[in-house]
User: Fold these one by one.
Assistant:
Number 1:
Amino acid sequence: MTPDLKVRIGTLELPNPVMLASGTCGYGLEMMPHGDIAGLGAVVVKGLSLLPSKGNPPPRIVETPSGMLNSIGLENIGLDDFLVDKLPKLRRLGCRVIVNFYGGCRDDYRELAARLDGVEGVHALEMNISCPNVERGGVLIGQEPEEVHKAVAAVRGATRLPLLVKLTPNVTDIRLTARAAAEAGADALTLINTLQGMAIDVETRRPALARIVGGLSGPAIRPVAVRMVWQVRQALSIPIIGCGGIWTARDALEFLIAGATAVQLGTVNFTHPDRWVDVLAGIETYLVRHKLERVTDLIGALET
Amino acid sequence: MLLSIRTARRLTDDFHLLDLAWPAGMAEPLPGQFVMVRTREGTDPLWRRPLGVHDFRRVRGAGILSLLFQVVGPTTRDLSGLAPGAMLDLLGPHGRGYKLDAAEQWLVSGGRGVAPFLYVARLLHRSGVPCRAFLGGRSSGHILRERELARLGCRVEVATDDGSRGHRGLVTDLLDRALARLSERRRTGVMLLACGPHGMLKAVAGIAAARGVAAQVSVDPLMACGRGLCLGCSVPVREGGYRLACQHGPVFDARELSWDAP
């Protein structure tokens, strides 16, 4: 029997638990040559801001052991161009679309959420709170539970769409910001965004990235991400979307067992643009092999 | 996709050449485009590596892609050990290449920057467009494909840093001298195509501007995906902001780029 791969995240029903992570699959359309993206649980598009953003100066990326650092600077085409140029094509493809977005202040967040509310073809929102609040001297919203609560509550009031909040792992206790987001009305949490890191060219003594510090992603961070998913699962009942260094189906299964309802593939898309197809097939094979009828039977099934 | 290796050849100490069978039905690569290759399972190195299309030709209808590379790291070291019959995991071709629409094309390379020019010269030869090549390198072992370019009708001049072959000094000096000898009228028909280290490209852009000729340069920033997903390979442009080397390039009009930006 074919196992049931359907999962539910708040009011959002997905045919399977595999998504592509924001910032690693463009606006989804770029992935089409490598597989029909309508077959994914969902595509999370590149983080949008109200106005286009040109991003950071180069160098923006550097390879590290089983990982990479990036400081892209949230380069994107802006909300308007997305709605006009990208979304209609995604709709025609029949792809479930989750729009990742970020703002420099609470009003930006609220306006983005309000303008995306009710737009046909947008199935859910994912709020990136790992960015500086320009009103408060650049403090990272996602690092302070109170700021998280205020920002998420503001967005919650502006949209009826399922709301995912993507948390930064650069905190002492992820459970505190997770609880703040959940209490402010998030429908699910995406764990985790990149870990802060740094690399240096020792010959020139210069930082590898123009912005010096960047975000670490890839398999190097996977154990940290799995741990955080498990910790939040223990503390809260809100659905979790696990993300961080998934390279194979085995890695995706780790997140599901730790307590994630769905997973996102990120950095792997750069090297293997069609890997999500294998991950999906691998999850199904595993369920058959373990005689599980539903993928939901596996979620949080960690034996301790 | 997996391409099978037909021949593998060592050209000099650390330069190698691979011929691969191009799958039937695949669009032919364009000059100046690149492919992304991977030699290992696992996650170190994490990224594929971009390699320029060195040559593309058909033998009895079957396409052959040539890759020219210098051993500089783990992926190119692995590539140098591949034997005929082995398979290579490759994505592409990607990017926008050289436009070959001028009356006369001059090719300027530094070291492994000669890579895209055999295919360029082949296409120019086919359409009867005059071609000159200026090859630069550290020493004679870094001057490659001189004979092959000459065979395709290119007039070739060589410069090495140590004087072990050709002019002792910079390849851009040879270029500037050659341009200075042209009449202004003839210069308007010349297009420079350059590939090499950033400093050389910048010098070519400067010479082109000073001598009033057009130039296209192929840039080579770090690249994770090669397909516009990671936004890592940004190049500053004169009008402000950035373009992606993998999508808008790797070949740009030299005037489009901001040469003084970090």
Number 2:
Amino acid sequence: MIAVESLLNGNRLALARTLTQIENNTPEGRRVLDELFLHTGQAHLVGVTGAPGTGKSSLVNQLARYYRNPPDGSKSRRVAVVAVDPSSPFTGGAILGDRVRMRDLSGDPGVFIRSMASRGSLGGLAVATSGVVQALDAAGFELVMIETVGAGQAEVDIARLAHTTLVIEAPGLGDDIQAIKAGILEIADILVINKADRPGVENTERALKSMLQLAHPVEHVFQDQVTHHQLYPEQQPTESADVGDERLWEIPLTRTVATTGEGVGKLGVFIDQHRAYLKSGGGWSRREKYRLQSELDSLLQATLVSRWRVSLPKEKYVSTLEQVVRRQVSPWQAVKYLLDGSEA
Amino acid sequence: MDEPKLRVLIAKPGLDGHDRGAKVVARALRDAGMEVIYTGLRQTPEMIAEAALQEDVDVIGLSILSGAHMALVPRIFELLSANQQEHVKVFIGGIVPDEDVDELLALGVSGVYGPGTLTTDIIRDIRQTFAGERTR
């Protein structure tokens, strides 16, 4: 049994074991999360996403160093990192390699790094990532950086979890058409061109800049809500009115070289500015609300499905599936039969 | 509740720069359905123990080709026990002279694997170590 007190008092072993319980979705993990939840809501959650190989881990390493020793002499912050890498869809195994780039952080008691496998989840995070982040928040880490799986165009879950989302690009990854597509670029609160010492950086910058100019400013405020309403189309976005004449956040586009640390200080300032922006307007509480709502909804869905599964005879499911495979009934007819019991 | 996965830390302590073996083993364990935290070259015992704690691993696999195993391994056990992580099983791969193997096993090492080892043997041994014992 994990002592919640010792986790709250900064015991790293208790924290590490709690994270395992949360990841494995055990009754013990859920019990601890229930208790910890009251202590959450303090940390600034910063998401870091982008294509594989753009330098997310190296940048997280540099940002953590920056926040541990701010060059302007401000107070150093305790930093936790949650780094997600993909699980094999065939074996369920995973190589979690993000720590390789974070060796500078070793030996610092104010830093805690946890690697997670995505375990079949497709949105760039694992199902348990949000619980893991809550535990780190409760344990007193002021900044929690969440690094997603190397993301393509649709892994946008991070925008629902994080207060501030960084999208990392690198020179040579795509033209201006890629830049105006929907998806991952759209969720950025801050756009970062890493590897800015590479050739082609001007082209990348130009494409991203014109993308930012083409974008409709209102959608930027509600990027997380937009994804939310795509998932729950029955709820119309009616809350745009809340924003009133609130100042809009202008998405900064900034260059970094994570291997040398160049530009990281400037990026750190943008991250803090975004936090201040959210706090000064209603953005912080709106994001919290959407995040908790989407978490509640997905837990409800998962629980409903698993409860219903218990009551479903396995043979009935297997035989219905077999009928679908033989093209005798359509998937929708099968759903109707399984849920309502009536013959489709 | 989800099926718990075996979590394995693969680390290369010391100064030799050859990590192909470590990568081959990491990949094999991945293909056996384990979650492998790969930490890369030139890890100190302190870095390894810290990573093992934060990641709450069940197994540490050390790749040592430098001959420094009799210095590195006792230190790692010392740190693991200081962190209350005595339950973590330690396996070693690399170049270890026969006369050192017994001493390492006496220290608490669960297995020592030299050149030519089949990855299937390593997987079998890790699984056997945890057979009947549910991972936490």
